Every structure is written in C-alpha cells, then in structure tokens.
Amino acid sequence: MLLLSYEDFVEEVKAEMQGYEEIEEAAMTKWFSTLEDFVGKKQKSTIFNYKGTDVEVALKDEADLFMIVDRYLAAIVNDELEKYYTDWSL
C-alpha cells in the first residue's frame, strides 16, 4: 500500500504527466481543476480518504499512479476526452 498526502499525490501525477508531450499544459490544468472539484466536494472514491480538511491518498502501489496518467493519455491520444470526463472519478 502506498499512502500519500493529497499534495504529494498532486505533485507525483503532475511529474508523470509532464513526461508526455501529448499532455499539454491546458490538458493538465483541466485535469487538476476536475480533481480539485472532485476532492473539494468530498466525492466518494476508492483512493481518497477524507479526514476533516486533510485528504490522504491510498494506492495499491506506484502502478496505480501510472495507470491514472495512462488512462488520461489514452483519452487524449484517442480523442475521447468527452467520454473520459463523463462521470469522472478516481
């Protein structure tokens, strides 16, 4: 189990996204904005544990982090962003 603070999770995802030229700055901004809305509303999630104002992120391992970014990359490459953002959750 990989436990991260929300801030560390954001930094890890951002670093991974920056490794792909297909994920441009505007796409990253949209993804992180969607994430902020999701977490701000304390939406039910399999990876986020809400503890008062703190958020802890529980992943099985680092592969889960890569999977999150790879799913987004695939949506960009396959021009399926509308479908990707439909009922978006983590």
List keywords for this structure.
single chain; about 90 residues; alpha+beta; three-stranded antiparallel β-sheet; 3 strands; about 15% strand
Structure description:
This protein has 90 residues and is α+β, with helices and mostly antiparallel strands. It has one domain (2-85). It has 4 helices and 3 strands, in the order βααββαα. It has a 3-stranded antiparallel sheet. Helix 1 (6-17) crosses helix 3. The chain is globular and about 35 Å long. It starts with a strand and ends in a 5-residue tail after the last helix.
Q: How many alpha or pi helices?
A: 4
The Cα radius of gyration reads 13 Å
Return the domain count: 1
**Count the strands?**
3
Strand line-up of the largest beta sheet: 1-3-2
What is the residue-averaged pLDDT?
Answer: 95
Beta fraction: 15-25%
Secondary-structure-based class equals: alpha+beta
* Weakly predicted, low-confidence segments: none
User: What pattern of helices and strands is seen along the backbone?
Assistant: EHHEEHH
Characterize the biggest β-sheet: 3 strands, antiparallel
Give the overall silhouette: globular
Helical content, roughly?
A: 40-55%
End-to-end Cα distance, whole Å, is 16 Å
